[in-house]
Design a protein that fits this description.
The chain is built from 15 helices and 23 strands. It is an alpha+beta fold. It has four domains: 3-83; 90-174, no CATH class; 177-308, no CATH class; 320-462, no CATH class. Strand 22 and strand 23 (433-438) form a beta hairpin. This is DUF3846 domain-containing protein.
């Protein structure tokens, strides 16, 4: 039978077997790409539901199980779900001041979660993202939690920044960081078995949180990585064992990065369930720069630094650059700008970040906190299929690149990127997608006039900031 017929059969059968329960269907958009059609089980008068993966049960009917056997399995799952339904006071869930004490962090991969990340608060960490959950406690079936969404934030009337700060405070307090040598962990698992005893520490250290659930997020705990430096004795590599823990290995030259990368791939393939995989990459923590980054980026940065130190005839950095200035609601224009960091910051109205969305040797210098500070949306960035995957907030510069720094654009580059960013755009969210709409010239003039009036009335201020090396 096809899936729709199967769904109707399940609904009729479960209603007959459990006349006191309420049933429904819903598409469950889960993290890690594990979305499925869910059978929702609800106790009478309750606003809390449990979901059963109907896709998995339907698959059993195609692999030899009879319809009666599958219905019995679903009955057993419904009974268990209804008996272990978390007791949640809906009024409490709607009270952020109470719920913030239960916040926890979860580290997930970006790949496979793009659609969900578009509608939930998160912080990007290389190719991973930190999301936020309310911890509802544990029972014999495991732990229960609720993923915090943008819709929930809107109902609470709080910002993403407030949520992130509160989540860090609650996580550090309720789920303290844990860093132990691998030998200690193995000995604890083995009990009194002598073959696991060792007086020499392992080169591997296990970083997680107490209880182990979603422990990879410990790398975002304030000060944790610097405390790990003291324990390990210097810089270290970070191996994403799973979403529940990471392994730390000293960067002392005893093992090659390629070996560590192969180790991570092998473990993910053989040992880690798909829903628990975090990344196939290896990361690195630079204790001097206090920088967590992809290990390949670290090696490239070190190589570039060494090359700069030993270059015999390093060219002098030009004092000014010819670049393209792209402002919201205006056409791009060619400007001459100073090459100092302060000049670049002034041009975009704050701390800078450089993004590299094109294969050509050009970069976009954007305001690092543009979206956080609510700057007007400017231009869309599109993939090779023309689909919008991000939007730049605030004014930005299109600049050329050398092996070491920024450079003036060539005339060919000016022509190409003026055409690419020529049309001012407005933006509209359509479901999980962002639509970029060209702004007619007349409306551009209206917006420009309104902006001028606001500037004359309010004025603006900029804050100086001591910047790190990654802002160049």
């Amino acid at each position: 039978m096809d899936f729709d017929v199967f769904k109707k059969a399940v609904m009729d059968e479960m209603r007959e077997r459990f006349p006191n329960l309420e049933f429904g269907f819903r598409e469950m958009k889960k993290l890690q790409g594990e979305s499925y059609e869910g059978l929702m089980v609800t106790l009478p008068g309750s606003k809390v539901s449990a979901s059963l993966n109907l896709d998995a049960y339907y698959e059993r009917t195609n692999t030899g199980a009879s319809e009666h056997q599958v219905m019995d399995l679903i009955e057993r799952a419904v009974r268990e779900a209804s008996q272990n339904m978390p007791q949640l006071d809906w009024k409490v869930l709607g009270n952020y001041e109470q719920m913030k004490e239960t916040l926890m962090l979860q580290m997930i991969p970006v790949k496979g979660n793009e659609e969900r990340l578009a509608e939930i608060p998160h912080e990007m960490v290389e190719e991973m993202a930190v999301v936020y959950r309310f911890d509802l406690g544990s029972n014999e079936r495991g732990t229960s939690s609720v993923l915090v969404t943008d819709t929930m934030l809107k109902s609470y009337g709080i910002t993403r920044e407030r949520l992130a700060a509160d989540a860090i405070d609650a996580a550090v307090k309720n789920h303290p960081a844990s860093l132990r040598n691998m030998n200690e962990v193995l000995q604890e698992m083995a009990g009194d078995r002598a073959d696991f005893r060792s007086d020499e520490p392992s080169p591997l250290w296990v970083a997680t949180v107490e209880g182990g659930m979603n422990g990879a997020s410990v790398i975002r705990y304030p000060g944790f990585l610097d405390r790990a430096v003291e324990t390990i004795g210097g810089d270290f590599y970070v191996l994403p064992s799973s979403i529940h823990e990471v392994l730390l290995v000293a960067d002392d030259g005893s093992v090659a990065l390629t070996q560590l990368e192969q180790m991570v791939r092998d473990i993910n393939e053989a040992e880690v369930a798909p829903a628990d995989r975090l990344s196939d990459s290896v990361f690195h923590y630079d204790s001097e720069a206090h920088l967590f980054e992809n290990a390949r980026s670290f090696e490239l940065r070190e190589a570039m630094l060494a090359e700069a130190l030993f270059a015999d005839d390093e060219p002098e950095q030009p004092k000014s650059l010819t670049v393209l200035l792209v402002e919201p609601n205006r056409y791009p224009k060619v400007v001459e700008i100073g090459s100092d960091l302060s000049d670049l910051q002034k041009a975009v109205g704050g701390y800078i970040e450089v993004v590299y969305p094109f294969e050509e040797k050009v970069g976009l210098i954007v305001n690092e906190e543009g979206k956080m500070n609510g700057l007007p949306l400017n231009r869309a960035l599109r993939d090779e299929n023309g689909e919008v995957y991000d939007v730049v907030a605030g004014s930005f510069l299109v600049t050329g690149l050398t092996e070491e720094s920024f450079a003036s654009l060539t005339q060919a580059q000016i022509n190409k990127f003026e055409k690419l960013f020529h049309q001012p755009e407005a933006f509209l969210r359509m479901g999980n997608h962002i639509m970029a709409l060209p702004i007619p010239k007349k409306e551009q003039e209206t917006r420009k006039a309104a902006k001028t009036r606001d500037t004359d009335t309010v004025g603006s201020k900029s804050k100086p900031r001591k910047t790190g090396h990654d802002e160049r």
